[in-house]
Design brief:
The chain has one domain: Rossmann fold (3-Layer(aba) Sandwich). It contains eight helices and seven strands. It has helices at 15-31, 37-48, 58-70, 85-92, 107-119, 133-142, 160-169, 196-210, and strands at residues 75-79, 99-104, 126-130, 150-153, 176-179, 214-223, 226-235. Strands 3-2-1-4-5-7-6 form a seven-stranded mixed β-sheet, with helices on both faces. The termini are far apart. The relative contact order is 0.12. The protein binds S-adenosyl-L-homocysteine (SAH), 3,4-dihydroxybenzoic acid (DHB) and magnesium ion. 3,4-dihydroxybenzoic acid binds at residues 54, 154, 180-181.
Amino acid sequence: MPTRGSETPRSDPAAPDSQIWEAVDRYFVDLLALTDPALDETLRSMEAAGLPAIQVSALQGRLLYLLAQMQGAHRILEIGTLGGYSSIWLARALPLGGRLITLELEPRHAEVARANLERAHLSDRVEVRVGRAVDSLAQLHAEGSRPFDLVFIDADKESYPEYLTWALRLSRPGTVIVADNVIRNGTIVDAHHPDPRVQGIRRFFTLLAAEPRLVTAPVQMVGTKGYDGWAIVRVVVGADARGEPRERRDPPNRAVT
Ligand code: SAH
Ligand code: DHB
Ligand code: MG
């Protein structure tokens, strides 16, 4: 087990840090048994199908699972399915009768995800919808979808501002919204960064900052995926971002807008 002692070379600023982040991830994956045949086979099937290995880490999957359970989520919305790895973590947190709707652009990704969800015995709880997420979100809204208790945003970063707007329309006071990949090696502090994904995330945070119904906790993370992080956001009514307790309790299960 490597330690942060004097043997850590300071001449290579990136590699030693990422090595220890990975070692710590591995330590917890083993100690806490954060893998199982269904998750392992999901990763194998993604590799076999040539899907990119950009799923959440096992530790992040555990955190998604825990947040969903802490939230008592019956209805979960995921934007960006890929091979269904994060979908499995989220769907496993659902109580009997709970539902996960997950949105994916690529039919091939959706097909891999459906097979993985089937293998994990979660098909009865999960619906994979294929198409541009903005269209699927508008469709959900048009269907009169009941509000979601948890929303996980993890598709194309340029569209995060739009996804936030739709997530809010599909929310109720108390809904929690989690967004992946919002720290991006720290590049998000650069207002002039040329990457449109960075600019998308910056606009996303600008919207969050301006929206009095939302309380935002940005979380910087390190691990097998390098240096990145989440925004964890709670929809509130009558309280502001400083968390002043103007609301006595969450109103019942009604949409915000
Ligand atoms: N949540 C997954 C990873 C998602 S990767 C996990 O952690 O396991 C991002 C996914 O979003 C990819 O599968 C990509 O095809 C999909 N995507 C990209 N643009 C999209 C769009 N406009 N609408 C819906 N899905 C999109
Ligand atoms: C990418 C997308 C993700 O959602 C992620 O977690 C990591 C990388 C990407 O598109 O490269
Ligand atoms: Mg991601």
